[in-house]
Amino acid sequence: MSTPDQPTKAEIQNKVREALGRATLARARNQREQALKLVQEAINLDGTNAEAHELKGDLLLELRRGDEAMVSFKRARELHPDRPVLEDKIARAALQRASRLRAVEMSQALLEGRAKPAGPKRNPGYAALLSLIAPGLGQFYNGEMLKGFIMIVCYVFLFALAVLAVLREVASAPMGGQPVYERPVDIGSVTSALWSGSALPVAILLVVVWIYSIVDAALRASRTMTSDDSGLVV
What is the location of CATH 1.25.40.10 in the chain? Predict the structure, then answer.
C-alpha cells in the first residue's frame, strides 16, 4: 500500500511509458546516448519491465556494446520468456562481443609483434594470369618479392639448361659432316631432342615450376580475399 508521499503503481507505469516513449523518439533521432539515459530511468522506476530491458539492449547493440546488450536481452527474456525475437537479439549481441574480442586480440598481437597488418586484396585470376605469362610475376603481384625473384631465376636457369640440352642433342645427330651452324632448322628434330635424352627431365622440371607458380599465385591471392585473414602469426 502506497503512502501519500509515494507514487501509486499506476503513476509509476505512466512515468515508465513516458520515459520509454521519449527514449524511442530520441532513438529515432539517432540520439542513442540520450535514449539510453531515458530507458535507464524507466528501469529504475520499474526493473521488471521487459520492454525497457529489451529497448536498452537494442540501444547498446547499436552503440557496439555487445557485452552489456547481452545482459539486457537476457534479463528481458527472463521477464518475457515467450518472446522468440530475444533469442535472435542475444545471438547478435554474442557475435558483436566476439568481434570486439577478436579486434582486441588482434590489437594486442600487433603490439606484441605476433601479427602483421592485413595486406591489400589481390585478384586470384589476375595473379594466375600473370604467372601464366611468366613464372614469378604472380608472386610479384601478391607482394612476395623474394619468392617471385626465385621463381624467375629458377625458370630462366631451367630454360637455359633445356635449350643447351636440345642443342647438344641436335648437334650430336648425324648430318653427313655438315657444321651445326650450317644445318637447316628442323622443328621435328628439335621436338624429338626436347623430349628425349638429357633434355627430358629438364623440360619436366620447367613445366612443374611453371604450373607451381600459377597455382601458388592464385592460392595466395585467394587468401587475401577472405574476410577472416587477420594476419595473426600462429
Answer: 9-112
Letter string b/e over residues 38-63, b meaning 16 or more CB atoms within 10 A of that residue's CB = bbebbbebbeebbbbbbbbbbbbbee
Residue 138 phi/psi, 5-degree rounding, is -65, -35
| pLDDT tens digits, one per residue of 107-154 | 666 566 655 555 678 888 889 999 999 899 999 998 889 989 998 999
Question: Which residues make Cβ contacts (< 8 Å) with residue 25, sequence separation at least 6?
Answer: none
Q: For Cα atoms 55, 57, 60, give the angle at the middle one, nearest 5 degrees.
A: 110
pLDDT value at residue 26: 93
Nine-digit cell string for 62: 547499436
pLDDT tens track for 70-113: 899 999 999 999 988 999 999 888 888 887 777 667 666 656 66
Any residues with CB less than 8 A from the CB of 199 and at least 6 apart, and which? 162, 165, 166, 169, 193
CATH architecture group of domain 9-112: Alpha Horseshoe (1.25)
Residue 116 dihedral angles phi and psi, to the nearest 5°? -125, 145
Backbone torsion region of residue 177, taken as left when φ is above 0, otherwise alpha when ψ lies between -120 and 50, otherwise beta: left
Instruction: Please state at what angle helix 199-225 crosses helix 145-172, rounded to 10 degrees.
Output: 160
Alpha helices in 80-144 (DSSP H): 85-112, 124-133, 137-141
